[in-house]
Structures are given as structure tokens and as C-alpha cells.
Protein 1
Amino acid sequence: DAEITQSPRHKITETGRQVTLACHQTWNHNNMFWYRQDLGHGLRLIHYSYGVQDTNKGEVSDGYSVSRSNTEDLPLTLESAASSQTSVYFCASSEGEVGELFFGEGSRLTVL
Amino acid sequence: GQNIDQPTEMTATEGAIVQINCTYQTSGFNGLFWYQQHAGEAPTFLSYNVLDGLEEKGRFSSFLSRSKGYSYLLLKELQMKDSASYLCATTDSNYQLIWGAGTKLIIKP
């Protein structure tokens, strides 16, 4: 069965360190997204990609970067982690421009 | 501007019916989505409305009124496993989803 997986599921890091969250999907979807979810807020879009070599900034992209070298993977990098980036991060993929999103299990990141 | 509002929390009784409302404002409407999210898990797709009216899918139905910027999710014959957060989302002018903060539904026996 096709799926979307994230790793690590839980990570604790220190302020200023670089962190990379992996996202891998086997749906063969062109569209991939990274969201963060915080209490009291809806999901907020960090970055998204519509295909290989395509990346776009979302609503809360400062301090984050992504790269898309193949269809399956969209890693999210925090260049210098800050306490404000403590959150649960969800990767998602979709087939069409406006369509059902398939989410990974989430990665809980704590920045101390 | 763009905004989505939904109640923070609702409580209902097992076997009953509950309606979760969502109001939205967007400059680029391309449909209204509902997702279910159990605590500690990922959101999962429930429904998508792009035209006015009611869409029924088993125990769950979703309604849309584009002129009023309003949608609701109707859950019938509530079961304990329906305890979850329900997320309302619509699109912005860049076709990206904007999300409500979610409604936490508590089901009591």
C-alpha cells in the first residue's frame, strides 16, 4: 500500500542546531507540503512543492528550507533551531492542485 | 482577508447527532474540506464540498453555502470513536489550504 512516512517521530534539540525532518511518500504524488501544528492554531503551511526542483514558501517559511531532488522526498531543514519552532510538523502529499491531502504521522520537535 | 472560524470544543452524547459549524472568508474559494484528527495522530480526509448543498457519506454529512461563507459537518449515531478534533479548511488565492483551529468533539456515554 502507498504511504507517507516521516522521521524522526520525536526529536529534542538545542537552540542554534540544524535539524532535518525527513518525509518520504510512495503515492507518486507531485505535490508535497510541510505544515506545523500548534495549540490554538490551525495547520500552518511552511513550504510546498509541485514537483522535482520546485519549492515555494508558505505562510510561515522564515527559518525553514526544503529541497526536492526526486518525487518521493521533501526534507525540511531548520537552519538554526529556535524555541519558537517547537511544534508538531506534518508532511502531506496530494495528487491534484486542489485535492485530498494524505498526511504523514507527524514529527514532534522540541527545541530547548 | 482570509479567516476560518469554528467552535473550539463541543460535547455530545453517544448515539446522538452533532453539527459542527464553520464560517470562512477567502479571496480564492475552490472548495471546503473537513478532516478528522484523533489525538496524537495525523489528520484524515472526511469530505470536500465545492457546490452548495448537502453531501452525505454514511454517518457523516457536510453542507456548504458559498453565498454565506458557511459549512457544517453533521455526525449521526455518534460513537465513542468519533471523539476527535474536526478541522475545517478552504483554499486561498494561491490554491493553498487555510485551516481553522479545529473543533474538539467530546463524546460522553
Protein 2
Amino acid sequence: GEDVEQSLFLSVREGDSSVINCTYTDSSSTYLYWYKQEPGAGLQLLTYIFSNMDMKQDQRLTVLLNKKDKHLSLRIADTQTGDSAIYFCAETFLAGNTPLVFGKGTRLSVIA
Amino acid sequence: SQTIHQWPATLVQPVGSPLSLECTVEGTSNPNLYWYRQAAGRGLQLLFYSVGIGQISSEVPQNLSASRPQDRQFILSSKKLLLSDSGFYLCAWSEGDRTYGYTFGSGTRLTVV
């Protein structure tokens, strides 16, 4: 079955780069997503990548996709205290109406 | 533009009481709708999803139910709450092809006492 795995915690110093990793099992995944959840709030879509892409960059965010290893990463450059949140990786296979599969989330703590 | 509304934001209910959480979407038609639960501030558990009026798929057997009485309205209910129903409930919607992922509501914090 489908599964998405993430490490649970990451701690970085303000100004450093953060790299959040995700692995998935469904090789037929078409779109992969990164969501951010701040305390007490809903999830906010940060970025997504199509499976036919290797990399996508959006300001401080860089997404890397290794389809061979089924590995997705999110790099946040110049990490700020406002980046402290839980980050969820998610995947979908666009046949039928199967829902997104989410990882358990990585809690990023930024130390000033 | 599309918006999603979820209420109430916070709810404290006694064990055995009923529950009704409501979610509505504006600015789109025939959205896919989802209910998730997040326990202890961690992973998301998909509870129900709907691809059309009256079409509900249940992912987890439990004492919760969902209904979609109108195209853009999704309701999560329970006849008798359990302590284990406490958590953060999130509603979300997506276009049929889900290209741009889900848009989530702001969530309801439910505490069963």
C-alpha cells in the first residue's frame, strides 16, 4: 500500500539551511506536495512538484525529487524563526479519486 | 476566489454528547471534500472524503459519520462522543484532478471531557 515516511524532528539555527526529507513507496505517484502547519492552524500548501521534474525552486524553497530512490526533500534557505512549524510531505496518484497520502510531519524548530 | 470555512474553532463536549462540525466551500462547484483528524498535534488521519453530493467514503470505522447535504457543505457528526474523539479536526477541499493539492480550513479543536 501507499506509505509516506518523514523524520519527526529537525532543529536548526537561524540563518542556516534546513533540509526536510521524505520517502514514499508508490512509484506511480504523479504529484508530490509540501505543506506547512503552524501551531493551532490548518495546513498551508507551500509547493508541489510533478513527477517528471527533478527540482523546483521558489524563493527560499527548493524541492528535490529522486524518483529512482522515491525520495523527496525540501530545503529552506536562510531559515528564520517564522519557519518553525510542522512540515508534511504528501503524494497522489491521479487516477480515480484516491485521496492524498500524507506523512506524519516533521517538526522544525529554529533556534535564534 | 475560493474560500473554505470551518466552525466552530474550539469545542469542549462531555462524553456521550452529540457532535456536529460544519465545513463549507465558496467559489467553486463540485469540489472533492475531506475530513481529517490530527491527534496530539501530529499526523493526519483521513476520516471521510466525498466526490459528490451523497457520496461518502469512510476510511476509518468508528463512531463518527459524515454527510454532504449540499454540493459545498460537508458535515462531520457523532451521536455519542468518546474521550478518544478528542483532537484537531480539519476539513479540506480540492478540484477533481487534485493538481494543486488540497486547501485546508482553519480546523476545530475538539476536547471531549
